[in-house]
Amino acid sequence: FKTFIEVSTGKKAHGVAPVTPLQSYDLAALRLVGIMLLPGKKVAIIEDPTGKGYHVKIGTSIGLNDGVVVEIRKDEVIVEEKYLDETAQTRTRKVPVKILKEEGQGGEVR
Asked: Would you give the distance in Å from CA 28 to the centre of its chain?
């Protein structure tokens, strides 16, 4: 007996291991802690749940859903990732990863 129902676990298909540490986490688990705007170059600093920081730039692979950094703004990073819609078609969406201000700085609290 083989079931016709597949359960999505959010992990990469075919058991492919993540290529980078940032591809091991869902975007919601990552935290944007800073952005450096240098002449002709933008770099964001993303922290994983263990507190380790990574420098990312446009084109960096990130997240569980084959996400790629497509834009770095002054207060957020835009990641384009793939997902399956209700008809099982692969689509892409742009997900913002924003800097959340710490408590006492007048912003949102994570």
From this structure: 7
Residue 97: Cβ within 10 Å count? 21
Rg (CA), the chain: 16
> Are β-strands 90-98 and 76-84 bridged in parallel, bridged antiparallel, or unpaired?
antiparallel
Distance CA 17, CA 74 (A): 32
CA neighbor of 70 nearest in space, from 82, 59, 55, 62: 59
Residue identified by tokens 């957020």 is: 76
Nearest to 80 by CA among 67, 71, 90: 67
- Tell me the per-residue pLDDT of 5-22, one tens digit each, with 9 for 90 and over: 555 444 444 456 568 899
Query: Which pair of structure tokens corresponds to residue 20?
Result: 């980078």
Tens of pLDDT, residues 60-86: 999 999 999 999 998 999 999 998 888
The pLDDT-based confidence of 110 (bands split at 50, 70, 90) is very low
Tell whether pTM > 0.85: no
